Amino acid sequence: MYGFTIVENLQKIDQDIKRQELKYHQKRVMVSKEFSFDAAHHLHCYEGKCKNLHGHTYKVIFGISGFVDDIGLVIDFGEIKKIWKEQIEIHLDHRYLNDTLPNMNTTAENMVVWIYEKMEESLESDQKDCRVEFVKLYETPTSFAEARREWMTHE
């Protein structure tokens, strides 16, 4: 049986915990956020079922790293969601990808690099010290493409 504790005295800032205690370390940490979208596409120069128009429910996972701020956050998950919604998802969700993405064969391999670049551009203009470490793009529950920072840059 589990025991539950009722919190009677909720911690108060600057009384029970000091502001300088909110930041526990100065190390780089990675946070991840996952999204999904539905879209249609077809592949060019491909002899198989995917040469025909078809759709997927895609899943995207971002790994974003940075150093924690004064309250212990690398980046607010809400900020990642805002970037996704305003800068990336608008080109993808319920869209015909061959029309909405730059000229490319809309393979998972091409798309994951485009998504990586869009997130990286947004972070560079909006966030201090945050960077994309990886993006995974699942085309099906068992098939995905991945872009990693070490493959995208020469750092």
TrEMBL record:
First-level EC class: lyase
The keyword 4Fe-4S appears for this protein: no
Pathway: Purine metabolism; 7-cyano-7-deazaguanine biosynthesis
A family per Pfam: PTPS
GO molecular function, one term: 6-carboxytetrahydropterin synthase activity
EC number: 4.1.2.50
Reaction(s) catalysed (UniProt annotation): 7,8-dihydroneopterin 3'-triphosphate + H2O = 6-carboxy-5,6,7,8-tetrahydropterin + triphosphate + acetaldehyde + 2 H(+)
Cofactor: Zn(2+)
Keywords: Lyase, Metal-binding, Zinc
Keyword Metal-binding annotated: yes
Similarity remark: Belongs to the PTPS family. QueD subfamily.
UniProt-recorded name of the protein: 6-carboxy-5,6,7,8-tetrahydropterin synthase
Phylogenetic lineage: Bacteria, Bacillati, Bacillota, Bacilli, Bacillales
